[in-house]
Amino acid sequence: MDNQNQLIQARQQKMQRLLDMGVNPYPNRSSRSHIIKDLWDNQQKFTDDEQKVTITGRIIALRRQGKVGFGNVADESGNIQIFVRKDNVGEENYEIFKSFDLGDFCQIEGSCFVTQMGEYSVRATCVTMLAKAVRPLPVVKEKVVDGKTIRFDEFHDIELRYRKRYLDLLLNPEHKHAFELRAHIISGMRRFFENRGFLEVETPILTPLYGGAHARPFNTHHNTLDMELYLRISIELYLKRLIIGGFEKVYEIGKVFRNEGMDRAHNPEFTLLELYQAYTDLDGMIELTESLFKFLAKEVLNTDTVTFHNTEINLTAPFRKASMLELIKEYSGFDASDFDYDKIKTFCLEHHIEVTSAAGAGKLIEEIFNHFVEPKLLQPTFVIDYPREISPLAKAKPDDPNLVERFELFIMGNEYANAFTELNDPHDQRKRLEDQQKMREMGDAEANVIDEDFLEALEYGMPPMGGIGIGIDRLIMLLTDNTSIKEVILFPQMKPEN
Questions:
Q1: Is 70 exposed, middle or buried (0-12, 13-18, 19+ CB in 10 A)?
Q2: Are residues 181 and 242 in the same domain?
Q3: Is 381 exposed, middle or buried (0-12, 13-18, 19+ CB in 10 A)?
Q4: Which of 58, 160, 208, 303 is the most buried (most CB within 10 A)?
């Protein structure tokens, strides 16, 4: 029998001893008079008054000798030493204490005092087992390197941390910080939009069609209706239906699902903010985006700048604004403004950029941008004037039908926001989606599908408006200085171990 199984067996034997004593190792009820932080914040008061307290938490340290035992109990707010003497708790209760192991959850009743060694502690008058941990927690070790104490454990293995996040958070509580900040950032976003008069809504996740983005979907089957359904890849088309229905400012924060590759910036399910506002346009979305980023930095992080991967990002000044064609010429020297397909294709082949049969001049221009420009956009930059071919839901520029009123916000080589002056001409929209369908037939699996129900809704009239999508996980990465999306998703998708 290996060591792990021996430890589990020893804990199970202690649990059986409790059962034999008539003690339930997993009782239904617990009580707590104070969190541990309260005891530390009011140390003098609790020590002087000998006020009765009841704390609950997990045992993180334990040492027993004869009729006396010490330990440390931790809850979410902190940890404190406990002092358990057989004479104080009684013989039967001390037997329960002898069944405690590291990792068990317990309830301690008693009063606060300071030991002869000067340690602020809780002197127990009664101990209660709340939940027996059958498996021992991984051991945390320390070693001294160059005069510094380094704390480490098996959960410094990154993949293991993601697979067993509950143990990662338990053993490395500093990793909780990013997820606490995530909650505060999302809460801040809601405050920001509420202050601007937006209504938060919920729209379907299971949809009969998917659309609103270039992506492959996950599909499933509904037994009762006997029909195929898809997990949404975007929130856009339902929110636009709400604008048609009379709402003027709506947004949703929710999960979307894309059946695509996984890397440091992509997870198959991720959290997306989508927002639509009537009677505005791309310029309105630029102002909103700048204001949102500044608000989150200032109100949530109390700063005007953030550091990401050792680079300081300034979120205060107006962000740079430049066209995609202008940036391609700046970084590659190539002028694609004439949309000459043969010339653009030749340039791509010369620079080993993939050319697919479904890609027109607009798609190839995007590939050139991705290759030459995107990684070099470090400070916040609004990339505007996208090819019409790759933007089927955005309005064309009045002075150039090859381009649309669209921006993507890039910071440190990553995209953080995507916005349009939204297309509201039902005839133009149908033609664009039909063009997308042709691209699908030529092999582009990520091209948009034709949504007849949305097109019908559009024929009832949709006001001019601006819309934006922001990937929240990437935004959290930026604001918490994490270079992997798995660090800001509590339970990221993982490949099976076997």
A1: middle
A2: yes
A3: buried
A4: 58
Q: Indicate whether 387 pLDDT > 80.
A: yes
How many domains is the chain partitioned into structurally?
3
Note whether 152 and 23 are same-domain residues: no
> What is the overall mean pLDDT for the chain?
93
The CATH number assigned to the domain holding 108 equals 2.40.50.140
Residues 481 and 387 in one domain: yes
pLDDT 10s digits, 35-46:
999 999 999 999
Task: Give 144-154 pLDDT, tens digit per residue.
Answer: 667 676 666 55
DSSP string, 295-354: HIIIIIT--SEEEETTEEEE-SSPPEEEEHHHHHHHHH----TT--HHHHHHHHHHTT--
Contacts of residue 405, Cβ cutoff 8 Å, sequence gap at least 6: 281, 282, 384, 385, 394, 395, 396, 397, 420, 421
Q: What is the mean pLDDT of residues 113-129?
A: 96
Q: What is the pLDDT of residues 345-356, one digit of tens each?
A: 999 999 999 998
- Range of 79's domain? 3-131
Domain shared by 402 and 427, yes or no = yes
Which residue in 31, 17, 7, 13 sits closest to 96, CA to CA? Answer: 17
Q: How far apart are the first and last CA of the chain?
A: 23
Per DSSP (E only), the strands in 86-191 are: 105-114, 120-131, 141-145, 148-152
Q: What is the pLDDT of residues 251-264, one digit of tens each?
A: 999 999 999 888 99
